[in-house]
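User: Continuing from earlier, I have the next pair ready.

Assistant: Great, send them over.

User: Here they are, in order.

Assistant: Folding the first of the pair now:
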Amino acid sequence: MIATVRKLSEFFNNSPKRQQHLVKNIKELLPNNNHEVLINVCRTRWVARIDGMDRIVEMLLPVASALEDISLNRDENGDRGRGDWNVDSRNDAQSLLNAITFTFIVAIVVVRHILDLTRPLTLKLQRKEIDLLKAKDEIALLKHALADMQRNIDVRHHQLYVEAVELAASIGVQPSMPRVAVRQVHRANAPAADPEVYYRINLTRVFLDHCTQHIDRRFQNEVYSCYKGLYLVPKVMLSNAAVWKARVREFCNDYRQDIPNIAGLDGEFALWERMWRDQQNVRADPIPDRVSDTLAEVDKHAFCNIYTILQLLATLPMSSASSERSFSTLKYLKTYLRNTMGQERLNGLALMYVHRDKNMDIEQLIDLFAQMHPRRIRMANILHDDGV
């Protein structure tokens, strides 16, 4: 199903002519629609997968109409066999049109609905400044929503099935189900009396159980215990004055064998909080909000326990890697039309794009560039007659 969605988006996005024909069908069939481009289901960003399936469900009618026009080689007047589509486009369009079956429609409606429940949590966890502790409420809310859907699977699936039937009817696809064979190893094969029961047993229930199991395995209670030590960071500590000691104490209980002086934690906690509260009023620089910045300022002899806790936090695996954003940047900077770009210029443009929030003095950069690369010929000012 995901592969079909990706092929549909690539089929139109990789050809301006096909995309223009899709836009024409969207304006005719969905005049109030605000979207005109299909979203490719990205393999790394989960939100892009959700958006891609939402866009397919929203624009399935004009997409199917555009594929039919291309496969039948229709012209602008709708005359069959008189268009200017090449053979490869017609064959690819027919192949994609054959892939839009009732099974595909039911699958994308069900999967899209379940993944839409994960959108708030996904957006929070894919931010640059990720905080798993703040996302704990969204994780609990998602687990409750999936559990509620499992308890009311008959009613919820019926609603999704009706939506799939209406969507299939808009493009002329009749409800059906795959043939139930005696032996089947490549797909679910539970027998059912009608298509609705078949997809409830073999699709909705299976995918819902799969999502629930993965979320329970990824977000276990031990994960929160590891990250509770982040409350020791000064900025987090000052904003959570009522609970930070209890949270860090839970972290220390899990790493008791690594703490050098477990009995002296209360004294260090009291001095640590007082020190940063005093510095908050007189300090010119901002209070540290990261483990690395806090490690650079902590006195490891006076706060041996806190220093050890910060070292343990520094060894925990990160859930968000900013370096991966450079791969997305390269797609915008170096394309097939700009493939002759040199390495020095590419590095410069990539740094400017990634760190575009930095405030830079343009005049100072121009003066620095002029000093590093002096011109042999003095540039004339064309606005004056004397060229000065």
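And the other member of the pair:
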Amino acid sequence: MAAYILKRILLMLPTLFGVILLTFIVTQFVPGGPVQQYIAEARRGAGQGAEGSAYRGGQGVDPKKIEQIKALYGFDKPPAERFMKMLGQFARFDLGRSFFQNKEVWQLVKEKLPVSVSLGLWTFFLSYLVAVPLGVAKAVRAGTRFDLVSTLVVLVGYAIPGFVLGVALLVVFGGQLQWFPLRGLTSSNWDELSWGGRITDYLWHITLPVTAMVLGSFAVTTMLTKNAFLEEIRKQYVLTARAKGLPERRVLWKHVMRNALIPIVTGFPAAFIGAFFTGSLLIETLFSLDGLGLLSYESVIRRDYPVVMGTLYLFTLIGLVTKLISDLCYVWVDPRVKFD
């Protein structure tokens, strides 16, 4: 086990390096970097007089000023030198500083994390609390009308993109019926509310975005649970337990459940940790929620490279470690699994 863990950790290093290197190379060829954006804004400002008349548009920007901006953003150095400097920062877990927001990337992640955690944890818990019992019920009633109808409903929910469902929820429940707010995670008078009022206000705001995210994640967990249960129910030990006269409920929940939930439990760490750091760009944008998804989108649009590279490094590292934990859970859940 120790040798396997060491091997996986050593494999993480070239994987992490490759992801960072490819992303860095791509950013070097994408037009419209921070220096170009500054030049474009300066030219637009120079082209407007006090009354909006163009008078300096053809003069361009002072070359010395451009060199100062390049030095400010670090673009006065060769790409290889900038890449090695960035790797040194990442080795110290220094994610850098945003070009445009004048904040450390760590600080930005901490500021945006509560919104993404709210969405992710609610989606995670609701998905498992509903999908696992539903999958068990479908397996027990396989082939019945309940199984067919629930499969149809689950697959239709899976086929509808989350942002499309979000638009429909906003139009119907936020616009026409006005049952839920259209934007934000809390109301403007949040500080004036009591604790009970804050909880109610928070749940009132989070209902529509969580609904839009949850429905699409039901299908995979539900069908995985159903198929795992069906596979275990057909095995010999289940027939033996039934032949001994054990109640059906005890056979299902004590014997079948322990083996059928192996693929579900092993994916639990990745889903749980991902709930903290996975931001849904479209849902956050649609409901005006300032989370990690919106931060990533804005940093790409504005070419805020420290934020892009810093968050990419952080999330890739978390993903690799989580994948290792998920693999180790196989041994914890099923001792028969041997990595050698």
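Worth noting for the second one:
DSSP finds 15 helices and no strands in the chain. The CA atoms of residues 196 and 202 lie 10 Å apart.
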